[in-house]
Specification:
The protein is built from six helices and ten strands. It is an alpha/beta fold and about 220 residues long. The strands form four sheets. The protein has a four-stranded parallel beta sheet, with helices on both faces. The protein has a two-stranded antiparallel ribbon with strand order 1-2. The protein has a two-stranded antiparallel sheet with strand order 7-8. Strand 1 and strand 2 form a beta hairpin.
């Protein structure tokens, strides 16, 4: 099986190129919502503009504390396309645990899904909350900021089993290289339908799931 070399230097370039690579094939199926790769790329650009309009600059960190959904995917890649740094937050954390990660990461905002599992979704003091299922993601002017392969794109925190969670920073190039190889090892192919039950706040759901699917042209079915 041939080894994959990433064709792109940043995750946004990879995601947006999927519009040309896979066109009108289904990219995401989330209940009644069905998005083609072309439609997903456009929504990601619009979401990037929404983050920019909200004051998110290149290198700013934004947290997402929400279950798997099409909106999670659009928000995450929209944030990266605006030059931001994604901080996924474990949806099973209690409020104090989530606040600790959000504050220590330096997040300028947190996206939440109100009512999920009946958990307290109030953000820490001074950190604005954005409803992931509201109109925010659709309210921007399409945007794509320039980034480099070595820019940090996400900070994923450990579970904190034996102590406070620790944030692991990764760059665009590191993620693309690692998950292009993962696609080879898993034999993920264009046209595959990928039911992603692993949570997006975890590297398996977000990276071996969403990033890998967009590298190869698999259809994402969010679950869990």
């Amino acid at each position: 099986m041939p080894k994959s070399e990433p064709e792109w230097v940043t995750i946004p370039r990879m995601v947006l190129s999927a519009a040309d690579r896979f066109g009108d094939a289904e990219a995401v199926v989330d209940g009644p919502l069905r998005l083609t790769f072309r439609e997903l790329a456009e929504r990601v650009r619009v979401a990037a503009g929404a983050f920019a309009s909200a004051g998110i600059e290149k290198g700013d960190r934004v947290a997402i504390r929400a279950p798997n959904s099409a909106e999670w995917i659009i928000a995450a890649f929209g944030l990266l396309t605006a030059g931001g740094v994604l901080v996924p937050v474990n949806t099973r954390f209690k409020a104090a645990e989530a606040h600790d990660v959000i504050l220590r990461s330096g997040a300028k905002a947190v996206l939440v899904q109100e009512g999920f599992l009946g958990l307290d979704q109030e953000p820490p003091p001074g950190v604005p909350s954005i409803d992931l299922k509201g109109d925010f993601l659709a309210g921007g002017t399409p945007l794509e900021r320039e980034m480099s392969a070595d820019d940090v794109c996400d900070i994923v925190y450990t579970s904190g089993t034996t102590g406070r969670p620790k944030g692991v920073q990764m760059t665009h190039a590191q993620n693309l290289r690692a998950y292009a190889e993962w696609c080879d090892l898993a034999d993920l192919r264009e046209g595959d339908r990928y039911l992603i039950v692993n949570p997006f706040f975890h590297t398996f759901g977000y990276k071996a799931g969403c990033i890998a699917s967009l590298i190869r042209g698999a259809t994402i079915l969010p679950s869990g």
